[in-house]
Amino acid sequence: PGTTPTVPVTASGSGRFGGVLEQIGSEVAALTDRGRPADYIPLLAGADPGRFGMAVAEPDGTVYGVNDWQEPFSTQSITKVFALALVLASEGEEIWRRVGREPSGNPFNSLVQLEYENGVPRNPFINAGALVVTDRLQTLTGNAAGRVRDLLREESGNPAVDFVAEVADSEAAHGDRNAALAHFMASYGNIANPVPELLAAYFRQCSIAASCQDLASAAGFLARRGVRADGSMLLTPSQAKRVNAVMLTCGTYDAAGEFAYRVGLPGKSGVGGGIVAVVPGVCTLCVWSPGLDRRGNSVAGVWALDRFTTLTGLSVF
Ligand code: DON
C-alpha cells in the first residue's frame, strides 16, 4: 500500500451521491491538520497523509468514488467486521459467550479491562475481542484469514484483494502487545487455538490490502439487511442490524461517542487510515487517508464522513 501510482480523480456523478463526493473530494485539499500515520507497525509509518479516497456503494452494486478511491491500502481493523460476520453466519449468537458487546472506553490495544472481566473482552472490535473472533473462525474453518480474504474478494468482485506478507511480518515482529492479550485470554480458557497460530492468522487478516471501492462494495451486505452481492443471505436481517449496532457503539474504539456525534453512522476504522460506514438501506461508504488522530482514527476520513452526513442529511438518527 502506498507504493502504487495514484489513480486520477474519477468523474463520479454516476450515482445518487456523485455530486456530494466531488464536493468533498475537492474540499479536502484545504484540510491542513491530517494527523500522523500509525508508527507502531513500521511498514505503515511511511504512508503519505496527503492521500485521500472516498467511495460509495449503493445497494444495487453501483460503486463510484473520488480521488484515491481505487488505491489499495492496509485494511487492518476493518477486517474485524468481516470476521465477525463470518462467525455469526456460521454459528449465530454462540460467540457472545466469549466476547461482550459494550464499548470499552479504552484504547484498541488495552490490556487493563481483561483482568477485571475474567478474560472476556468488552467487544469484538478491540484487539482482544477480535482475537477471540479470529480464534473461533480458525476453529470453524481452519483458515480464518483466508476466509476473510475470500469474503472480501467475493463481495467486492475483485480477485486482487490479498494479504501483504511484509505488513503481516512487520506487525508480527512488533506484536508483543497482541501476543500478551492472546496469552492472557488463553490463561482464562478463552482461546482455543495455539497462540502462535492464532497470532499468525490475526496478523494475516489485518494485512489484507483493499481499496475504498473494494471495501464499500464488500460491506454492502450491511446496508442490504444481510444479503450478499449475489443475492444469497450471509446474515439474517437481525444479525446485520446487530453488526451495525456494534459498529456504531464500538467501531472507532474510545472515540465511538465522538464518531456517533459527528457522523451518526455505524463505522469501523483501521490504523491503515480506512473507515467503512453504513447507511442502512441506502449505501455503504469507505474513506481512506493515512493520517490518524490520537485514538487511531483517520482525521480526514472522519472529517469526510462528517461532511457526507451533513451535506446529505443522512444518518441513523
Ligand atoms: O492489532 C493491531 O494492532 C493491528 N493489526 C490492527 C489494529 C487496528 O487497525 C486498530 N485500529 N484502529
TrEMBL record:
Composition bias, Polar residues: 3-13
Reaction(s) this enzyme catalyzes, per UniProt: L-glutamine + H2O = L-glutamate + NH4(+)
EC number: 3.5.1.2
Binding site for substrate: S77, N127, E171, N178, Y202, Y253, V271
InterPro entries reported in the protein's UniProt record: Beta-lactam/transpept-like (IPR012338), Glutaminase (IPR015868)
Keyword tags: Acetylation, Hydrolase
Record Gene3D superfamilies: DD-peptidase/beta-lactamase superfamily (3.40.710.10)
Enzyme class: hydrolase
Gene Ontology terms: biological process: glutamate biosynthetic process; L-glutamine catabolic process
Region entry Disordered, spans: 1-14
UniProt cross-references to SUPFAM superfamilies, sorted A to Z: beta-lactamase/transpeptidase-like
GO MF entries: glutaminase activity
HAMAP family: Glutaminase
Description of how the protein assembles with itself and partners: Homotetramer.
Similarity comment: Belongs to the glutaminase family.
Protein known as: Glutaminase
Species, as recorded: Kitasatospora cheerisanensis KCTC 2395
Gene name for this UniProt entry: glsA
